[in-house]
C-alpha cells in the first residue's frame, strides 16, 4: 500500500524512540508502519491500534494479548515482538521487520504451489505453531495473510491478535473474528477453539496451496460457515490430479469435522508431515550411504526446535559452517530425519530467495501479463435476472467464456440467470469460464397437513421445507382449541392447503389459528358480560332489550358479533338484554263456569286470587268479573283477582 501524504503518523516519533518512516499495511484493527528504533538503530515494524478503538477496553486487551502471546514464543518460525506500549492515546506493538511477501501474495502470483513447495512452507508453519501449542497458545487466525516469506528465505507466523491460552477455549463474541474461510466447524457451531482448530485452518491452507483455491466458496459469509459445519473438505487431488495421495490423506486428517479425528496439536501433524516427506523424497542413493552435508548457520538456527543432536566429538561453533561427517552405513531413523530436514530447509531458503528475486526482476512483464495480457483478472459483472444468451454475450465481451448449469430459485423467474460462479465482483482470468446458473423457478415441495397442529409446530414444518410462513390470522372458534391451526392457504393464489398439498420452495403459507371460544355471557349481568369479553380482547356494547321468560330483567339474553365473518381480537360484540317476561292478553272469562274460567287463566301462566270458599260451591258459580279486566294485558306469572256470581240471587 502506498504512503498517504495525509497520514499524520509519517515522520512522527513514538514514545521518544521509534521514528515512523512509511506505511506498510492497514487492517481492521491496526495499521502497520515501517519505523526506525533510534535506540538500537534497527528497522522495526510498528503496529498502531486505530484511534477509534483506543477507548474500547476489549480491543485494547486483545492488542496487549497479542504482545504477550508472541513474546512468550522464541522460535525461528514466529515473528518476534520486541516491545509494547502506550503513547498518549495510542497503543502500539514493536515487531521484527521482515522484508518480503506473504503467502497470500505468493498464491496470487502463482495460483497454486507444487507439492514440494507446499511441504516446505507447511513444515515451517507447523514448527512455529508446534512451539505455540507447546506454550499453551492457540493462534485462532491462521491464514495465508499471516504467513510471512522473508527475502532471505525465512518463513514466519505473525499476527497473534486473536491468540488465547489453550486451556481457555470457550469463545465469546471474538470467536468468529478469524477469517471465515478458515474457521473450524466447532468455532462455527459452538464458538469453541483449541489447538485442533488451528490444525483445521492449516488443513484449509494446505488445500489452497495445492489447488490455488479454497474448498468452500459462497456469496455470503454464512454460506461458507454452513459448509464448514456440514460438509467434508474434498481431497485436493480431485481438483489437481498431480497431488500425491499422501498429501490428500494429510489434508483429510487435518480437516476432519470432528476435532477428535484431527491431530491433537501441531507437533503431531509435523511428525506425520515428516513421514509423508520421507515417502515422497526417499533416502538418497542405493547403498544406504548418506552424503556429506554442508549446513549454513541459518539452517542450523532453523533446527533449534529439533531434539538435541551430537555430531562427532565437538559441537559446531555458533555462526560457523558445520560439516556433518558421512557415516559408512545407513543412518538410524533420527539421523536420517535430521539430514532430510536440514537439506530441505536449506533448499527451501534457496528457492524462496530466488523466487523473491525473480518476482522483482519480472515485475514489468508480470504487470503486463496480469494487467492487459492473457493472465489479467476480469471482474465478474452482475448477471442476475439476465437471459443466459445475453449474459454469455456480456462475458464474451470481457474475454470470458461461459458454462450453463441449473438451479432452483424462489426469487428469480425461470429461464433467467439466478447466480454465477464466481459471483458478482469476483475475479476470473481472461479466457476462463464463468458458470451461469439458470433458474428453474422455485423448487417443488409437498406441504403436509397443517390443520390441527399448534401454530409453532406448523411454522416449523413450513420453514423446515424451505417455504415461508406468511400471515397468521387469529380468530375465535368454538370448535378448535386456542393456539391450534384451523386452516392454511397459499399466499400466491389463496387456495387451501390445510390438509397438505403441492407447494414451492421459498413461497409463503398463510395460517388461520384459533383463539378458542368466545365466552358464553347469557344470563350474566351487563357488567360481568362486558368484563368477560374484555378479557378475551373483545369490545362489548349494549343493544336492544327483549322479553324473556327465563332471564331476569336487565341481564344479558344473548351476545353476537357486530359484523359478519370470523371474529378477531378487537371486534365488537352486541349485548341483548332482558325486559322480563312478555305481557299476555287477558281473555274474557266473565260468565263462564267457575272451574272453566280458572283453568283458562292458569293455563296462560297467571296466578289467581279469590275467596277460597268459592271453590267449595264451584259447580254453582260463574265468574262475575276479573281484575285486571278482560282485553288488557299482564306479564306471565302476575295475579288476576276473580269475583264469582252469587248463587243465591
From TrEMBL:
SUPFAM superfamilies: Protein kinase-like (PK-like)
Ranges of residues in domain Protein kinase: 18-274
UniProt GO BP: negative regulation of fatty acid biosynthetic process
Membrane spanning residue stretches: 350-371
Record field: catalytic activity: L-seryl-[protein] + ATP = O-phospho-L-seryl-[protein] + ADP + H(+); L-threonyl-[protein] + ATP = O-phospho-L-threonyl-[protein] + ADP + H(+)
Domain PASTA: 375-440, 516-579, 580-646
Pfam families: PASTA (PF03793), Pkinase (PF00069)
Gene Ontology MF: a single term: protein serine/threonine kinase activity
SMART domains hit by this protein: PASTA (SM00740), S_TKc (SM00220)
Keywords of the record: ATP-binding, Kinase, Membrane, Nucleotide-binding, Serine/threonine-protein kinase, Transferase, Transmembrane, Transmembrane helix
EC number, UniProt record: 2.7.11.1
Name of protein: non-specific serine/threonine protein kinase
Amino acid at each position: 500500500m502506498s504512503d498517504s501524504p495525509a497520514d499524520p503518523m509519517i515522520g512522527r516519533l513514538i514514545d521518544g524512540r521509534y521514528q515512523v518512516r512509511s506505511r506498510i499495511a492497514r487492517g481492521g484493527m491496526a495499521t502497520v508502519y515501517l519505523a526506525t528504533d533510534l535506540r538500537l538503530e534497527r528497522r522495526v515494524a510498528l503496529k498502531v491500534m486505530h484511534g477509534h478503538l483506543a477507548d474500547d477496553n476489549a480491543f485494547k486487551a486483545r492488542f496487549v494479548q497479542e504482545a504477550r502471546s508472541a513474546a512468550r514464543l522464541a522460535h525461528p518460525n514466529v515473528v518476534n515482538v520486541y516491545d509494547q506500549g502506550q503513547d498518549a492515546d495510542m497503543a502500539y506493538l514493536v515487531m521484527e521487520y521482515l522484508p518480503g511477501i506473504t503467502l497470500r501474495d505468493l498464491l496470487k502470483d502463482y495460483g497454486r504451489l507444487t507439492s514440494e513447495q507446499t511441504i516446505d512452507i507447511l513444515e515451517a508453519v507447523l514448527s512455529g505453531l508446534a512451539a505455540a501449542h507447546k506454550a499453551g497458545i492457540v493462534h485462532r487466525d491462521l491464514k495465508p495473510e499471516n504467513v510471512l516469506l522473508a527475502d532471505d528465505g525465512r518463513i514466519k507466523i505473525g499476527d497473534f491478535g486473536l491468540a488465547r491460552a489453550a486451556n481457555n477455549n470457550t469463545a465469546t463474541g471474538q470467536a468468529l473474528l478469524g477469517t471465515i474461510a478458515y474457521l473450524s466447524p466447532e468455532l462455527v457451531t459452538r464458538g469453541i477453539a483449541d489447538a485442533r482448530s488451528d490444525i483445521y485452518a492449516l488443513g484449509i491452507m494446505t488445500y489452497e496451496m495445492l489447488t490455488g483455491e479454497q474448498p468452500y466458496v459462497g456469496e455470503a459469509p454464512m454460506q461458507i460457515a454452513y459448509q464448514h459445519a456440514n460438509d467434508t473438505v474434498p481431497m485436493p487431488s480431485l481438483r489437481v490430479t498431480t497431488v500425491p495421495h499422501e498429501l490428500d490423506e494429510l489434508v483429510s486428517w487435518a480437516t476432519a469435522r470432528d476435532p477428535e479425528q484431527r491431530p491433537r496439536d501441531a507437533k503431531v501433524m509435523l511428525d506425520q508431515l515428516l513421514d509423508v516427506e520421507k515417502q515422497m523424497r526417499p533416502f538418497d542413493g542405493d547403498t544406504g550411504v548418506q552424503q556429506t552435508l554442508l549446513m549454513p548457520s541459518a539452517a542450523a538456527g532453523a533446527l533449534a526446535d529439533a531434539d538435541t543432536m551430537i555430531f562427532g566429538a565437538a559441537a559446531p561453533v555458533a555462526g560457523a559452517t558445520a560439516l556433518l561427517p558421512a557415516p559408512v552405513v545407513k543412518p538410524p531413523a533420527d539421523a536420517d530425519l535430521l539430514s532430510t530436514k536440514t537439506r530441505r530447509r536449506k533448499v527451501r531458503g534457496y528457492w524462496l530467495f530466488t523466487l523473491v528475486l525473480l518476482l522483482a526482476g519480472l515485475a514489468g512483464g508480470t504487470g503486463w501479463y496480469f494487467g492487459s495480457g492473457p493472465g489479467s483478472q476480469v471482474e465478474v459483472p452482475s448477471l442476475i435476472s439476465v437471459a443466459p444468451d445475453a449474459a454469455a454475450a456480456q462475458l464474451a465481451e470481457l474475454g470470458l467464456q461461459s458454462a450453463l448449469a441449473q438451479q432452483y430459485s424462489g426469487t428469480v423467474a425461470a429461464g433467467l440467470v439466478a447466480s454465477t460462479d464466481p459471483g458478482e465482483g469476483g475475479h476470473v482470468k481472461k479466457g476462463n469460464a464463468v458458470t451461469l446458473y439458470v433458474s428453474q423457478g422455485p423448487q417443488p415441495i409437498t406441504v403436509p397437513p397443517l390443520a390441527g397442529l399448534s401454530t409453532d409446530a406448523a411454522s416449523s414444518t413450513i420453514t423446515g421445507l424451505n417455504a415461508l410462513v406468511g400471515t397468521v390470522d387469529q380468530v375465535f372458534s368454538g370448535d378448535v382449541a386456542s393456539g391450534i391451526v384451523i386452516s392454511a392457504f397459499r399466499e400466491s393464489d389463496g387456495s387451501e392447503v390445510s390438509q397438505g398439498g403441492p407447494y414451492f420452495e421459498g413461497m409463503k403459507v398463510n395460517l388461520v389459528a384459533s383463539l378458542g371460544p368466545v365466552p358464553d355471557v347469557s344470563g350474566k349481568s351487563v357488567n360481568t358480560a362486558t368484563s368477560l369479553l374484555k378479557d378475551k380482547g373483545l369490545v362489548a356494547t349494549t343493544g336492544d332489550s327483549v322479553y324473556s321468560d327465563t332471564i331476569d330483567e336487565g341481564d344479558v339474553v344473548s351476545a353476537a358479533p357486530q359484523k359478519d365473518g370470523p371474529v378477531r381480537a378487537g371486534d365488537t360484540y352486541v349485548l341483548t338484554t332482558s325486559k322480563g317476561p312478555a305481557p299476555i292478553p287477558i281473555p274474557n272469562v266473565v260468565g263462564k263456569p267457575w272451574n272453566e274460567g280458572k283453568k283458562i287463566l292458569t293455563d296462560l301462566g297467571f296466578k289467581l286470587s279469590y275467596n277460597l270458599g268459592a271453590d267449595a260451591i264451584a259447580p254453582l258459580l260463574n265468574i262475575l268479573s276479573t281484575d285486571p279486566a278482560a282485553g288488557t294485558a299482564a306479564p306471565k306469572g302476575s295475579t288476576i283477582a276473580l269475583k264469582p256470581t252469587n248463587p243465591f240471587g
